[in-house]
Amino acid sequence: MLDELSPTDVSNWSTTYELQDFYITFFDQTSGQYVNHTHNVTQAYQSYILPWWRQLLWTILFAGMIVVSTVGNLVVIWIVLANKRMRSVTNYFLVNLSIADTMMSTLNVTFNFTYMLYSDWPFGHFYCKFCQFVAVLSISASVLTLMAISIDRYVAIMSPLRPRLGKRATLGIAGAIWASSCVISSPNFLYFTTDTDLLPDGNVRRICFPDWPDGITTRSQLEYVYNVMFMLLTYFLPIMSMTYTYAKVGVELWGSKSIGECTQRQLDNVKSKRRVVKMMIVVVVIFAVCWLPFHVYFIVTSYYPDVVNYQYIQEIYLGIYWLAMSNSMYNPIIYCWMNSKFRRGFKQFFWCCGAMGNGTLNRHRAFGPDRLDMSMRSVSPSRKNGTSTIRISLHSTYNNTMMSSI
Questions:
Q1: Could you give one GO CC term from the UniProt record (predicted)?
Q2: Is the pTM of this model over 0.90?
Q3: Is residue 188 within 8 Å of residue 135, measured between CB atoms?
Q4: Rounded Cα gap, residues 243 and 232, in angstroms
Q5: Distance CA 307, CA 313 (A)
């Protein structure tokens, strides 16, 4: 997966080391057309420069995605960590997912987009390694976290009497996810390097590329094996696993019928679990849709290398790359849309930002349970296995309200 996230050879530059015919494609600013010239030299070379208005369009698209992703995921982290009622097993995993998505948007996308747009790496040798390391690290952490959530939901619903994960166990799993992700992404840090490339017009560009022990990128068998393994470990196998777990959970929640009458508390508990499962199914489906073109692209280019010489391949790849990276901005939107507690948290965050911007900050209702009747006499909270039970004494009538864990 090394050249996938900084495509030296698949965006607006292609370099091979054989004597062959190739095209140099220039964009003529005067005529507004691409001009092709056929050449035959030792180092084949292809370049085309996008018109300024298309560069501006792509910059706006990527900048908007980065801002929405960064702000949204940081707000999700704040919502969970700032309110004790939100500190459940599932929400801790959502924080882990938000951390990975924030790392992707802040530490990787901006730099790789700049490299793909201008084909010059001005960020130095170390960051060439670190940027690509973070890219695979965050992707791996994201998908492994989604798998952990699906397994946790599966166990909680299919084996309700089994003890839930505690805080230490949850943090331990999160630590194992990051450790495994570091192992998966370590080849990027080892084999990515920088070099300079002399162009036919006399200019020099700085390149960031993977240099494997058995050859350069696109010529290395080790790279091909690594890309295939990465694809299996971070896409196909996780998607198959999550499809199975959520299918079983869906059958259990929507397909099974309880014998006898159910109390209101039991019905509310089932509805709460359904909401959580529906939200996570949407997250997984969005993930699968966003990353599928990315993986398909590199399968196609592995077997049909001439595809990278297509005239508009730079913009095609930019579109595929934007779609894959945009996955990091959809999750906070999904949480806000499908979960009332996260929705209240987002409202409170932006309300606080607006209040501080106006120079005033008043007390605002927390984003825990809904507002209760002011005639409530007493509230005594109790917690067990990640849920909260609030007993309310109201006009000598006792009602039990089950709070969901998310």
A1: plasma membrane
A2: no
A3: yes
A4: 15
A5: 8
Burial class (CB in 10 A: 0-12, 13-18, 19+), 285: middle
Asked whether the beta carbons of 279 and 342 are under 8 A apart, the reply is: no
pLDDT tens digit sequence for 62-88: 999 999 999 999 999 999 998 888 888
Please state, in angstroms and rounded to a whole number, the distance separating the CA atoms of residues 212 and 289: 31
Cβ pair 2, 23 in contact under 8 A: no
Strand residues in 272-386 grouped as ranges (E): 379-384
Comparing CA positions, the residue from 223, 357, 232, 233 lying closest to residue 301 is: 223
Summarize pLDDT for 200-249 with one digit per residue, the tens: 777 788 989 888 888 776 677 888 889 889 999 999 999 999 999 999 88
Q: pLDDT at position 356, please?
A: 60
Structural domains in the chain, CATH included, are: 52-349 (1.20.1070.10)
Amino acid identity, residue 307? V
In total, the chain counts a number of residues equal to 406
Rounded CA separation 158/46 (Å): 56
Q: For residue 246, which phi and psi values (nearest 5 degrees)?
A: -75, -30
**Range of lowest pLDDT (119-133, 167-181, 273-287):** 273-287
Fill in the amino acid letter for 406: I
- Using an 8 Å Cβ cutoff, are 196 and 205 in contact? yes
Q: Worst-scoring range by mean pLDDT, 116-130, 215-229, 308-322?
A: 215-229
State how far the Cα of 95 lies from the Cα of 197, in Å rounded to an integer.
Answer: 42
**What 3-state class would DSSP assign to 211?**
strand
CA within 13 Å, CB half, 240: 6
**Which residues share a beta bridge with 116?**
none
